[in-house]
Amino acid sequence: xxxxxxxxxxxxxxxxxxxxxxxxxxxxxxxxxxxxxxxxxxxxxxxxxxxxxxxxxxxxxxxxxxxxxxxxxxxxxxxxxxxxxxxxxxxxxxxxxxxxxxxxxxxxxxxxxxxxxxxxxxxxxxxxxxxxxxxxxxxxxxxxxxxxxxxxxxxxxxxxxxxxxxxxxxxxxxxxxxxxxxxxxxxxxxxxxxxxxxxxxxxxxxxxxxxxxxxxxxxxxxxxxxxxxxxxxxxxxxxxxxxxxxxxxxxxxxxxxxxxxxxxxxxxxxxxxxxxxxxxxxxxxxxxxxxxxxxxxxxxxxxxxxxxxxxxxxxxxxxxxxxxxxxxxxxxxxxxxxxxxxxxxxxxxxxxxxxxxxxxxxxxxxxxxxxxxxxxxxxxxxxxxx
Length: 386
What we know:
Blueprint: H1 3-7, E1 21-31, E2 36-45, E3 48-54, E4 63-65, E5 69-72, E6 75-80, E7 98-105, H2 108-112, E8 121-128, H3 133-147, E9 159-166, H4 173-186, E10 190-193, H5 198-208, H6 212-219, E11 226-229, H7 236-243, E12 248-251, H8 260-272, E13 276-278, H9 285-294, H10 301-308, H11 310-315, E14 332-336, H12 347-356, E15 361-364, E16 367-370
Parallel strand pairs: 1-4, 1-5, 6-7, 7-8, 8-9, 9-10, 10-11, 11-12, 12-13
Antiparallel strand pairs: 1-2, 2-3, 5-14, 14-15, 15-16
Helix pairs in contact: 7-8, 9-12, 10-12
């Protein structure tokens, strides 16, 4: 059996024998299972982490000395797709800790013309509203192309598509049922985007004689392959309805004045069940991360660490992103190690790194990319073609 395949066989992940294998040796990496930093050799084959070994034991020749680095999962950003200005070639600047971006869009063309698409992993949150024909055709085109290896996981940047139903545009409950059936047929995760303002929510009540959360809790109570978006806007009573479901919940509209204490009060059962996802927006990502890192009781730190990383990735359909473990996608941040950091503090230090520092470089889909504007190091020469 191929060396890389054997080391990740417990997760049934087969890494192609021709994929490049390389290693970051003797580095500190965040263990999401134990919420602790551990010194390891991280072996990468192709787009995946093939092994986490005791420091100094990897036999791979290709790689880099990681003794001056700290590796952590990245966070998931979320935006609405905006067209790139004519003649512009650059993408929107965002914190370096964002290794994946989820974009709300109404067509695949919106995504390809978006100024937010960059080198990180991208998830198109393809909104189904009104006449679904264009969205269905766009999803099927991506699905068929991805299955033939011409698009999706092999794209640059790697791209996936998740159908999302806009509840404010619903005319009948049967639309929800048919949407769920379509997703099951295609074998994909689905999302429901709750109203973004009070007027739309009130109009929904006038049509269905109940709230959006109540209708979804009734129709999709046992649907685990589902994410509810815009949930940070609902009150505590509505949030309690979501706790009765099996879905993930995206808290993706957190503005700077939003009180994390109120957020915890409304959604604490979801955080404790690792079903709450904190998706950050570019305009206030650093503010949110700083508040999470600096004003969070110690008992909640691990829950927020999950919500920003693996739960955030799972909520946008990425079950193999957000954790540094064998078989997972090689998507992570690499920070310069600082003597002043307390790496024994686990999640507290992880959140502090994400909030206050730019990565030296990031790794997305097994390839090393440059860090942010304030990063102190370029991509190591050994990884220039990773």
